User: Fold this.
Amino acid sequence: TQLLEQSPQFLSIQEGENLTVYCNSSSVFSSLQWYRQEPGEGPVLLVTVVTGGEVKKLKRLTFQFGDARKDSSLHITAAQPGDTGLYLCAGAKETSYDKVIFGPGTSLSVIP
Amino acid sequence: DAGVIQSPRHEVTEMGQEVTLRCKPISGHNSLFWYRQTMMRGLELLIYFNNNVPIDDSGMPEDRFSAKMPNASFSTLKIQPSEPRDSAVYFCASRNRATGIQYFGAGTRLSVL
Assistant:
């Protein structure tokens, strides 16, 4: 059983479209991170959210942490081919700050 | 900085052979993590070290797996004997505890035939 669920699992869209991917859990996390992983590379951290209801923006990417700190979303505006990759959410619990649990990921393909 | 350096990038071996994966963390980072990534199970934490000391190895699948960190600039993950189900991409990551940001290496793709 996955502690963190992500949806959709796969997403293929045209350049210029908007999209949202979701990260859900029945557990409460003290912080949640989003990573992007490109083929043949390791994940790269995009953002960390720590406060329930927090919204962070990174250029065309908007990240939101749920009020109850159990879920998060990533919205991309006007997607570009360079956004293609595997998007992973990862949560850390207060009782084990060092251990980050990763979700299964959403594989995004942006077609020119 | 060169980032986290892993070697080899690719390893192909036969079942029963010993495999050693290597990692050089970012200088000054005091935490080091070993992960395994597969299509079926995603990215799983195997073991992590703080200040060269193993803190949690509950993710290590079985006794065939072992990890060491003899100093702050080097760590190894060893599989002996290897099995086909160990085939995966193994990542090393290091972190400065002050910032909490993990930096991943490019991974070692292991194929056990």
